[in-house]
Protein backbone atom coordinates (compact mmCIF):
# COMPACT_ATOMS: atom_id res chain seq x y z
CA UNK A 1 0.00 0.00 0.00
CA UNK A 2 2.83 2.37 0.76
CA UNK A 3 4.39 1.73 -2.63
CA UNK A 4 1.02 2.27 -4.29
CA UNK A 5 0.51 5.77 -2.96
CA UNK A 6 4.12 6.78 -3.16
CA UNK A 7 4.20 5.48 -6.72
CA UNK A 8 1.22 7.54 -7.79
CA UNK A 9 2.39 10.82 -6.35
CA UNK A 10 6.11 10.42 -6.75
CA UNK A 11 7.38 10.63 -3.16
CA UNK A 12 10.60 12.42 -4.06
CA UNK A 13 8.56 15.17 -5.81
CA UNK A 14 5.94 15.84 -3.18
CA UNK A 15 7.60 15.04 0.13
CA UNK A 16 8.75 18.65 0.44
CA UNK A 17 5.22 19.85 -0.35
CA UNK A 18 3.37 17.95 2.41
CA UNK A 19 1.35 20.69 4.10
CA UNK A 20 1.19 19.20 7.59
CA UNK A 21 -2.60 19.70 7.82
CA UNK A 22 -5.10 17.29 9.35
CA UNK A 23 -8.22 15.93 7.68
CA UNK A 24 -10.92 18.63 7.57
CA UNK A 25 -8.52 21.58 7.53
CA UNK A 26 -8.91 24.33 4.94
CA UNK A 27 -6.26 24.42 2.19
CA UNK A 28 -5.51 25.87 -1.24
CA UNK A 29 -5.81 23.33 -4.10
CA UNK A 30 -3.71 23.28 -7.24
CA UNK A 31 -4.55 26.38 -9.29
CA UNK A 32 -6.03 28.30 -6.37
CA UNK A 33 -9.53 28.54 -4.98
CA UNK A 34 -10.84 26.90 -1.80
CA UNK A 35 -10.21 23.36 -0.65
CA UNK A 36 -10.46 21.03 2.34
CA UNK A 37 -8.14 18.20 3.39
CA UNK A 38 -9.75 14.81 2.66
CA UNK A 39 -8.66 11.23 2.12
CA UNK A 40 -7.89 10.67 -1.54
CA UNK A 41 -10.54 7.94 -1.71
CA UNK A 42 -13.21 10.39 -0.47
CA UNK A 43 -12.37 13.32 -2.73
CA UNK A 44 -14.72 13.40 -5.71
CA UNK A 45 -13.38 16.63 -7.20
CA UNK A 46 -9.68 15.80 -7.42
CA UNK A 47 -9.75 14.91 -11.14
CA UNK A 48 -6.73 13.22 -12.72
CA UNK A 49 -4.62 12.87 -9.55
CA UNK A 50 -2.04 10.63 -11.24
CA UNK A 51 -0.94 13.48 -13.47
CA UNK A 52 -2.06 16.55 -11.52
CA UNK A 53 -0.18 15.70 -8.28
CA UNK A 54 -2.53 17.52 -5.88
CA UNK A 55 -1.06 19.05 -2.72
CA UNK A 56 -0.84 16.51 0.13
CA UNK A 57 -2.04 17.64 3.55
CA UNK A 58 -0.78 14.60 5.47
CA UNK A 59 -0.58 10.80 5.47
CA UNK A 60 -3.06 8.75 7.50
CA UNK A 61 -2.32 5.76 9.76
CA UNK A 62 -0.63 2.57 8.70
CA UNK A 63 -2.19 2.67 5.25
CA UNK A 64 -0.37 5.89 4.47
CA UNK A 65 -3.35 6.94 2.36
CA UNK A 66 -2.83 10.67 1.75
CA UNK A 67 -5.15 13.42 2.82
CA UNK A 68 -5.15 15.60 -0.29
CA UNK A 69 -6.25 19.19 -0.74
CA UNK A 70 -9.67 18.49 -2.25
CA UNK A 71 -11.21 21.40 -4.22
CA UNK A 72 -14.56 22.52 -2.85
CA UNK A 73 -17.43 22.33 -5.30
CA UNK A 74 -18.07 25.72 -6.86
CA UNK A 75 -21.57 27.08 -7.54
CA UNK A 76 -22.84 25.77 -10.85
CA UNK A 77 -21.91 28.57 -13.21
CA UNK A 78 -24.76 27.77 -15.61
CA UNK A 79 -27.18 29.13 -12.98
CA UNK A 80 -25.56 32.50 -13.63
CA UNK A 81 -25.39 31.89 -17.36
CA UNK A 82 -29.02 31.52 -18.27
CA UNK A 83 -29.15 34.81 -20.17
CA UNK A 84 -26.03 33.90 -22.15
CA UNK A 85 -27.46 30.45 -22.88
CA UNK A 86 -30.72 31.99 -24.10
CA UNK A 87 -28.83 34.11 -26.65
CA UNK A 88 -26.64 31.15 -27.67
CA UNK A 89 -29.72 29.00 -28.35
CA UNK A 90 -31.24 31.73 -30.51
CA UNK A 91 -27.97 32.27 -32.38
CA UNK A 92 -27.70 28.54 -33.04
CA UNK A 93 -31.20 28.51 -34.53
CA UNK A 94 -30.35 31.50 -36.71
CA UNK A 95 -27.13 29.90 -37.98
CA UNK A 96 -28.95 26.68 -38.87
CA UNK A 97 -31.81 28.41 -40.70
CA UNK A 98 -31.61 27.77 -44.47
CA UNK A 99 -33.87 30.76 -45.10
CA UNK A 100 -31.71 33.26 -43.22
CA UNK A 101 -31.99 36.82 -44.47
CA UNK A 102 -28.72 38.43 -45.53
CA UNK A 103 -29.33 41.65 -43.59
CA UNK A 104 -31.26 42.90 -40.58
CA UNK A 105 -30.99 39.72 -38.55
CA UNK A 106 -33.05 40.01 -35.37
CA UNK A 107 -32.10 38.34 -32.09
CA UNK A 108 -35.24 38.52 -29.96
CA UNK A 109 -33.38 38.28 -26.66
CA UNK A 110 -31.72 41.64 -27.31
CA UNK A 111 -34.83 43.52 -28.42
CA UNK A 112 -35.71 44.86 -24.99
CA UNK A 113 -32.20 46.00 -24.07
CA UNK A 114 -31.88 49.57 -22.85
CA UNK A 115 -28.42 50.93 -22.25
CA UNK A 116 -27.99 53.34 -19.33
CA UNK A 117 -24.89 55.41 -18.78
CA UNK A 118 -22.26 53.53 -16.78
CA UNK A 119 -19.30 55.29 -15.25
CA UNK A 120 -16.08 53.34 -15.70
CA UNK A 121 -12.68 54.51 -14.54
CA UNK A 122 -9.53 53.45 -16.34
CA UNK A 123 -7.01 51.62 -14.12
CA UNK A 124 -4.00 53.67 -13.17
CA UNK A 125 -0.32 52.82 -13.60
CA UNK A 126 -0.87 50.76 -16.71
CA UNK A 127 2.53 49.95 -18.14
CA UNK A 128 1.29 48.53 -21.44
CA UNK A 129 3.42 45.39 -21.18
CA UNK A 130 2.19 41.82 -21.39
CA UNK A 131 0.53 42.10 -24.82
CA UNK A 132 0.31 38.49 -25.91
CA UNK A 133 2.50 36.86 -28.32
CA UNK A 134 -0.46 34.23 -33.98
CA UNK A 135 2.23 32.48 -35.75
CA UNK A 136 1.71 29.44 -37.90
CA UNK A 137 -1.81 30.55 -38.82
CA UNK A 138 -3.50 30.33 -42.21
CA UNK A 139 -5.34 33.16 -43.98
CA UNK A 140 -9.05 32.74 -43.41
CA UNK A 141 -10.90 32.67 -46.72
CA UNK A 142 -14.59 33.53 -46.65
CA UNK A 143 -16.58 30.60 -47.95
CA UNK A 144 -20.20 29.87 -48.74
CA UNK A 145 -19.59 26.43 -47.21
CA UNK A 146 -20.02 27.87 -43.72
CA UNK A 147 -23.56 27.39 -42.30
CA UNK A 148 -26.18 28.94 -44.51
CA UNK A 149 -25.63 32.52 -45.64
CA UNK A 150 -23.27 33.62 -42.87
CA UNK A 151 -20.42 34.65 -45.13
CA UNK A 152 -17.74 34.93 -42.49
CA UNK A 153 -16.73 32.13 -40.16
CA UNK A 154 -15.87 34.81 -37.60
CA UNK A 155 -18.73 37.36 -37.76
CA UNK A 156 -17.96 38.41 -34.18
CA UNK A 157 -14.29 39.26 -34.78
CA UNK A 158 -13.54 42.85 -33.88
CA UNK A 159 -10.53 45.07 -34.55
CA UNK A 160 -9.65 47.51 -31.77
CA UNK A 161 -8.27 50.88 -32.92
CA UNK A 162 -6.04 53.07 -30.73
CA UNK A 163 -5.48 56.82 -30.67
CA UNK A 164 -3.18 59.13 -28.70
CA UNK A 165 -4.04 59.43 -25.02
CA UNK A 166 -4.06 63.22 -25.31
CA UNK A 167 -7.07 63.10 -27.61
CA UNK A 168 -10.45 62.50 -26.05
CA UNK A 169 -11.84 61.71 -29.50
CA UNK A 170 -10.10 60.91 -32.77
CA UNK A 171 -11.09 60.29 -36.37
CA UNK A 172 -11.22 56.73 -37.68
CA UNK A 173 -8.41 57.61 -40.10
CA UNK A 174 -6.08 58.17 -37.13
CA UNK A 175 -6.74 54.80 -35.54
CA UNK A 176 -3.96 52.23 -35.23
CA UNK A 177 -5.33 48.69 -35.12
CA UNK A 178 -3.41 46.85 -32.43
CA UNK A 179 -5.75 44.39 -30.66
CA UNK A 180 -8.61 42.01 -31.32
CA UNK A 181 -11.93 41.53 -29.59
CA UNK A 182 -15.27 39.79 -29.92
CA UNK A 183 -18.78 41.18 -30.26
CA UNK A 184 -21.06 39.71 -27.56
CA UNK A 185 -24.17 41.95 -27.71
CA UNK A 186 -25.36 44.85 -29.93
CA UNK A 187 -23.61 47.23 -27.52
CA UNK A 188 -20.58 45.43 -26.14
CA UNK A 189 -17.24 44.03 -27.29
CA UNK A 190 -15.27 41.64 -25.06
CA UNK A 191 -11.51 42.20 -24.93
CA UNK A 192 -8.41 41.89 -22.72
CA UNK A 193 -8.03 44.62 -20.11
CA UNK A 194 -4.39 45.22 -21.01
CA UNK A 195 -5.59 46.25 -24.49
CA UNK A 196 -7.63 49.15 -23.13
CA UNK A 197 -4.91 51.62 -22.19
CA UNK A 198 -1.15 51.85 -22.78
CA UNK A 199 1.26 54.59 -21.65
CA UNK A 200 0.83 56.26 -25.05
CA UNK A 201 -2.62 55.49 -26.43
CA UNK A 202 -5.98 53.95 -25.62
CA UNK A 203 -8.77 52.03 -27.34
CA UNK A 204 -11.09 54.41 -29.19
CA UNK A 205 -12.58 52.46 -32.12
CA UNK A 206 -14.12 49.04 -32.84
CA UNK A 207 -14.32 47.73 -36.42
CA UNK A 208 -16.52 44.77 -37.38
CA UNK A 209 -17.43 42.96 -40.60
CA UNK A 210 -13.90 43.03 -42.02
CA UNK A 211 -11.60 40.18 -42.98
CA UNK A 212 -8.84 42.64 -43.96
CA UNK A 213 -7.65 45.58 -41.91
CA UNK A 214 -7.22 47.96 -44.81
CA UNK A 215 -10.39 47.07 -46.69
CA UNK A 216 -13.56 49.08 -46.22
CA UNK A 217 -16.55 47.30 -47.74
CA UNK A 218 -20.30 47.56 -47.46
CA UNK A 219 -20.12 45.08 -44.57
CA UNK A 220 -17.66 47.24 -42.56
CA UNK A 221 -19.03 48.63 -39.30
CA UNK A 222 -17.03 51.25 -37.37
CA UNK A 223 -18.14 52.21 -33.86
CA UNK A 224 -16.56 54.54 -31.35
CA UNK A 225 -15.77 53.01 -27.96
CA UNK A 226 -17.79 55.09 -25.53
CA UNK A 227 -16.77 53.52 -22.23
CA UNK A 228 -14.50 50.86 -20.77
CA UNK A 229 -15.79 48.54 -18.04
CA UNK A 230 -13.01 46.73 -16.20
CA UNK A 231 -13.58 43.72 -13.97
CA UNK A 232 -13.69 45.09 -10.40
CA UNK A 233 -10.67 43.05 -9.23
CA UNK A 234 -8.45 43.91 -12.21
CA UNK A 235 -5.16 45.63 -11.44
CA UNK A 236 -3.07 46.85 -14.34
CA UNK A 237 0.15 45.93 -12.52
CA UNK A 238 -0.87 42.25 -12.41
CA UNK A 239 -1.77 39.61 -15.01
CA UNK A 240 -4.95 38.39 -13.33
CA UNK A 241 -8.53 39.20 -14.46
CA UNK A 242 -7.35 40.35 -17.89
CA UNK A 243 -10.80 41.19 -19.20
CA UNK A 244 -12.69 44.35 -20.19
CA UNK A 245 -16.01 45.25 -21.79
CA UNK A 246 -16.04 48.04 -24.37
CA UNK A 247 -19.38 49.87 -24.53
CA UNK A 248 -20.02 51.11 -28.08
CA UNK A 249 -21.45 54.53 -28.94
CA UNK A 250 -24.48 53.03 -30.67
CA UNK A 251 -26.15 49.71 -31.30
CA UNK A 252 -24.71 47.31 -33.89
CA UNK A 253 -27.17 45.99 -36.47
CA UNK A 254 -26.71 42.28 -37.07
CA UNK A 255 -26.33 40.76 -40.53
CA UNK A 256 -24.62 37.77 -42.12
CA UNK A 257 -21.19 39.41 -41.61
CA UNK A 258 -21.74 40.79 -38.10
CA UNK A 259 -23.11 38.58 -35.32
CA UNK A 260 -22.21 38.07 -31.64
CA UNK A 261 -20.26 35.08 -30.38
CA UNK A 262 -21.63 32.55 -27.90
CA UNK A 263 -19.83 32.49 -24.52
CA UNK A 264 -18.79 29.44 -22.50
CA UNK A 265 -20.71 29.25 -19.21
CA UNK A 266 -19.34 26.04 -17.67
CA UNK A 267 -15.87 26.06 -16.15
CA UNK A 268 -14.74 22.70 -17.55
CA UNK A 269 -13.57 22.72 -21.16
CA UNK A 270 -14.43 19.33 -22.66
CA UNK A 271 -12.56 19.81 -25.92
CA UNK A 272 -8.83 19.20 -26.32
CA UNK A 273 -8.42 21.65 -29.20
CA UNK A 274 -9.60 25.17 -29.99
CA UNK A 275 -9.17 27.84 -32.68
CA UNK A 276 -7.48 31.22 -32.44
CA UNK A 277 -8.07 34.06 -34.90
CA UNK A 278 -6.62 37.52 -35.33
CA UNK A 279 -4.67 40.03 -37.38
CA UNK A 280 -1.57 39.92 -35.22
CA UNK A 281 2.06 39.58 -36.24
CA UNK A 282 3.35 36.34 -37.74
CA UNK A 283 6.65 36.75 -35.90
CA UNK A 284 8.17 38.89 -33.18
CA UNK A 285 9.75 41.26 -35.71
CA UNK A 286 6.86 41.30 -38.20
CA UNK A 287 4.07 43.83 -38.76
CA UNK A 288 0.34 43.36 -38.17
CA UNK A 289 -1.17 41.08 -40.81
CA UNK A 290 -3.68 42.65 -43.18
CA UNK A 291 -5.57 39.35 -43.49
CA UNK A 292 -7.48 37.65 -40.69
CA UNK A 293 -5.55 34.51 -39.70
CA UNK A 294 -6.83 31.38 -38.00
CA UNK A 295 -5.10 28.39 -36.44
CA UNK A 296 -5.78 25.38 -34.24
CA UNK A 297 -4.13 24.93 -30.84
CA UNK A 298 -4.13 22.36 -28.06
CA UNK A 299 -5.58 23.09 -24.62
CA UNK A 300 -3.16 22.31 -21.79
CA UNK A 301 -4.22 20.84 -18.46
CA UNK A 302 -3.66 22.82 -15.27
CA UNK A 303 -0.55 20.89 -14.25
CA UNK A 304 1.19 21.53 -17.59
CA UNK A 305 0.20 25.19 -17.60
CA UNK A 306 1.39 25.77 -14.06
CA UNK A 307 4.71 24.01 -14.65
CA UNK A 308 5.54 25.69 -17.95
CA UNK A 309 4.30 29.20 -17.30
CA UNK A 310 4.44 29.77 -13.57
CA UNK A 311 7.12 27.54 -12.05
CA UNK A 312 9.99 28.02 -14.51
CA UNK A 313 13.17 29.92 -13.61
CA UNK A 314 12.51 32.81 -15.98
CA UNK A 315 8.94 33.02 -14.68
CA UNK A 316 10.29 34.27 -11.38
CA UNK A 317 11.08 37.58 -13.10
CA UNK A 318 7.33 38.07 -13.60
CA UNK A 319 6.48 37.03 -10.04
CA UNK A 320 5.66 40.61 -9.09
CA UNK A 321 2.90 40.56 -11.71
CA UNK A 322 1.68 37.11 -10.58
CA UNK A 323 1.98 37.20 -6.79
CA UNK A 324 -0.47 34.31 -6.34
CA UNK A 325 1.04 32.16 -9.09
CA UNK A 326 -1.19 30.20 -11.44
CA UNK A 327 -4.90 30.71 -10.77
CA UNK A 328 -6.80 28.14 -12.82
CA UNK A 329 -10.17 29.78 -12.16
CA UNK A 330 -8.97 32.90 -13.98
CA UNK A 331 -6.80 31.50 -16.77
CA UNK A 332 -5.56 28.49 -18.75
CA UNK A 333 -2.96 27.66 -21.40
CA UNK A 334 -3.18 26.70 -25.09
CA UNK A 335 -0.66 26.28 -27.90
CA UNK A 336 0.77 23.93 -30.52
CA UNK A 337 4.58 23.67 -30.31
CA UNK A 338 4.82 20.93 -32.96
CA UNK A 339 3.42 23.19 -35.67
CA UNK A 340 4.77 26.46 -34.27
CA UNK A 341 1.28 27.85 -33.75
CA UNK A 342 0.80 30.67 -31.28
CA UNK A 343 -0.80 34.05 -30.84
CA UNK A 344 1.44 37.08 -31.32
CA UNK A 345 1.43 40.84 -30.73
CA UNK A 346 -1.78 42.25 -32.17
CA UNK A 347 -3.83 39.15 -31.35
CA UNK A 348 -4.30 40.25 -27.74
CA UNK A 349 -7.92 40.52 -26.67
CA UNK A 350 -9.08 38.21 -29.44
CA UNK A 351 -11.14 35.07 -28.85
CA UNK A 352 -10.13 31.44 -28.36
CA UNK A 353 -13.12 29.40 -29.57
CA UNK A 354 -14.30 25.83 -29.85
CA UNK A 355 -17.44 23.91 -30.83
CA UNK A 356 -19.93 21.99 -28.67
CA UNK A 357 -22.69 19.44 -29.19
CA UNK A 358 -25.14 21.80 -27.51
CA UNK A 359 -24.66 24.52 -30.15
CA UNK A 360 -23.29 22.68 -33.21
CA UNK A 361 -23.58 25.68 -35.55
CA UNK A 362 -21.73 28.15 -33.31
CA UNK A 363 -18.28 28.98 -32.10
CA UNK A 364 -18.12 29.06 -28.31
CA UNK A 365 -15.63 31.53 -26.85
CA UNK A 366 -13.74 29.88 -24.02
CA UNK A 367 -10.82 32.28 -23.69
CA UNK A 368 -9.39 35.74 -24.34
CA UNK A 369 -5.81 36.08 -25.60
CA UNK A 370 -3.92 37.45 -22.62
CA UNK A 371 -0.12 37.00 -22.44
CA UNK A 372 2.85 34.82 -23.33
CA UNK A 373 6.35 34.12 -22.03
CA UNK A 374 8.81 33.96 -24.91
CA UNK A 375 7.62 36.03 -27.83
CA UNK A 376 5.93 34.28 -30.74
CA UNK A 377 6.31 30.85 -32.24
CA UNK A 378 4.55 28.19 -30.18
CA UNK A 379 7.61 27.05 -28.25
CA UNK A 380 7.24 23.74 -26.43
CA UNK A 381 7.77 25.26 -23.02
CA UNK A 382 5.84 28.47 -23.61
CA UNK A 383 2.14 28.13 -24.47
CA UNK A 384 -0.09 31.17 -24.58
CA UNK A 385 -2.16 32.12 -21.55
CA UNK A 386 -5.86 32.92 -21.96
CA UNK A 387 -8.41 34.50 -19.65
CA UNK A 388 -11.03 31.89 -18.71
CA UNK A 389 -14.33 33.42 -19.94
CA UNK A 390 -16.63 31.21 -17.84
CA UNK A 391 -15.27 32.67 -14.59
CA UNK A 392 -16.63 36.11 -15.54
CA UNK A 393 -20.11 35.17 -16.79
CA UNK A 394 -21.96 36.60 -13.74
CA UNK A 395 -20.20 39.95 -14.20
CA UNK A 396 -20.63 39.94 -18.01
CA UNK A 397 -24.35 39.26 -17.61
CA UNK A 398 -24.70 42.00 -15.01
CA UNK A 399 -23.09 44.60 -17.27
CA UNK A 400 -23.87 43.56 -20.85
CA UNK A 401 -26.89 41.24 -20.58
CA UNK A 402 -28.75 42.94 -17.73
CA UNK A 403 -31.91 43.62 -19.77
CA UNK A 404 -32.07 40.21 -21.43
CA UNK A 405 -34.99 38.28 -19.93
CA UNK A 406 -34.27 34.79 -18.60
From TrEMBL:
Keywords: Disulfide bond, Signal. Residues 26-70 form the Clip domain. Pfam families: Trypsin. The keyword Signal applies. Residues 134-401 form the Peptidase S1 domain. One of its GO terms (biological process) is proteolysis. GO terms for molecular function: serine-type endopeptidase activity. SUPFAM superfamilies: Trypsin-like serine proteases. It comes from the Eukaryota. Belongs to the peptidase S1 family. CLIP subfamily. This is Uncharacterized protein. The lineage of its organism: Eukaryota, Metazoa, Ecdysozoa, Arthropoda, Hexapoda.
